Amino acid sequence: MTFRIDIVSLLPEIMTSPFSSSILKRAQKKGLVEVHMHDLRNFGEGKHKQVDDYAFGGGAGMVMLANPIFECIENLKSQRDYDAVIYTTPDGDRFNQKLANKLSLKKNIIILCGHYKGIDQRVRDALITHEISIGDYVLSGGELAATVISDALIRLVPGVLNDSASALTDSFQDDLLAPPIYTRPAELRGMKVPDVLLSGDSKKIDAWKSEQAMKNTKSRRPDLL
Ligand code: 6GU
Prior knowledge:
The protein has helices at 16-19, 22-29, 66-77, 97-104, 121-126, 143-154, 164-168, 202-220; strands spanning 3-9, 33-39, 52-54, 62-64, 84-94, 108-113, 130-133, 187-188, 191-192. It has 2 domains: 3-154, Alpha/beta knot, CATH 3.40.1280.10; 169-224, Trp Operon Repressor, Chain A, CATH 1.10.1270.20. By secondary structure, it is of the alpha/beta class.
């Protein structure tokens, strides 16, 4: 089974590099994941391919036209069933690992990238199943948020990470931050790797990791506890 993400955007080129490198590239090469970009401009209106207009009732900023979005998404839906149609917006639900886990179990999803002041409310009412924000700050557009969300989902797809145990020990996967990690050399510039990690005693090592994870979480993110 292939996990498929269709990203609908006015600026798809912003996202080409992240999807063409490293884990996201390999996931697609292995056939585990398909990512398809759709340029909304192709569905724009009139000879200028217009995609936005002034807001009814006034107010600063342009609004993305509903019709090009309807046409693009209806075209996709005519080809296959979608399990989720996500809209990236600063006023959406906050993205977190729990939501990433849930969405990674879907098969086909659409992510619509917001722009300007937003999209015509009728798109949200009629087409969108999930409205997602990646944090309490404002980005120029939803493309970087869509890329962040896609990355978080794709690395959870079975087979994408070579070491499948790795995803399970991430920060947040158990509502705790990760413990400190070290690699060689065992001593660097007078700084030593904690003895327990070199002890070979896996029970002791696991206990140390849990204790450190708890300590990190208490001091940096007590809200997670
Ligand atoms: Cl999803 N979009 C934009 N434009 N800004 C954001 C965001 C999304 N999440 C946080 N800030």
